[in-house]
Write a structure and sequence with these properties.
- By secondary structure, the protein is of the alpha/beta class.
- The chain has a single domain, classed as P-loop containing nucleotide triphosphate hydrolases (Rossmann fold, 3-Layer(aba) Sandwich), CATH 3.40.50.
- Helices cover 36% and strands 24% of the residues.
- Helix 3 crosses helix 4, helix 3 runs parallel beside helix 5 and helix 4 (117-132) packs antiparallel against helix 5.
- The relative contact order is 0.17.
- The structure holds adenosine-5'-diphosphate (ADP) and magnesium ion (MG).
Length: 254
Amino acid sequence: MSRPSEPLLRCRGITKRFGGVVALRDVTLEVEPKALVGLIGPNGAGKSTLLNVVCGLARPDAGVVELDGRPIAGLPAHAVTRRGVGRVLQIPRLFPTLTVEETVRVGALFGSPDSLGPAGTARRVHEALELVGLADRRTEPVGRLNTQEKRLVDLARALAGQPKLLLVDELMSGLNPVEIQRCTALLRRVREERGVAILWVEHVMDAVLGTVERVVVLDHGAVIAQGPPAQVARDPAVVEAYLGVDFQAAEVAG
Ligand SMILES: Nc1ncnc2c1ncn2[C@@H]1O[C@H](COP(=O)(O)OP(=O)(O)O)[C@@H](O)[C@H]1O
Ligand SMILES: [Mg+2]
């Protein structure tokens, strides 16, 4: 167990190269238990790569990743999942012929290793589907759902594994303002009702800045700013990196 003052996730000096491309350079960041932290930055900044390094889909060339004070960098993805890290992919990779419920059950079975039994598994699956609002679609094959519904199934799948840390990659691209509000409220509930810490990559700037308590900004693979949203939005280096994006227009919560 981590004490409240200890970070749940700690990344120190993470560097990741793809051939000549340095996707991450010396990235250090922490996520406290039950925190909601935004990770933003221009296209190609390294956001998805950082999530991949944390969840075991990519191995860093240098640096340390710790969950609850134990190193996880280099572990295979399924082992990281069992340690309590859930991941919602930018483009969900789901089996189209499995039903919504079957997909989420896979998440429950491959998540945190406490022995559940069939009744416990069914309850966990149902709770996750209720939370994302897809309980009445549970018998439908995933292939019949639209993109956003697929993302929500993927979120339910990750939640059914009882993660301590949820990594969310662009849940909101292509959504209208009403859907964005609904989705933001959902992430807040996940944090508040489940006590799950969330590291959230999103391009919809006002949604992120209006929701999270802390934001980390990546540019060209490096952290260029971090802090409360209102402070980061005024940071000249951030405004520069986002040239053309009107940060000040965003409804930034105090
Ligand atoms: N598997 C890969 N092979 C080669 N280059 C990659 C790979 N994944 C990411 N990159 C490169 O790393 C950089 C960061 O990419 P990415 O993490 O996807 O950025 P973001 O999610 O912030 O848009 C980009 O230059 C991208 O082209
Ligand atoms: Mg990305």
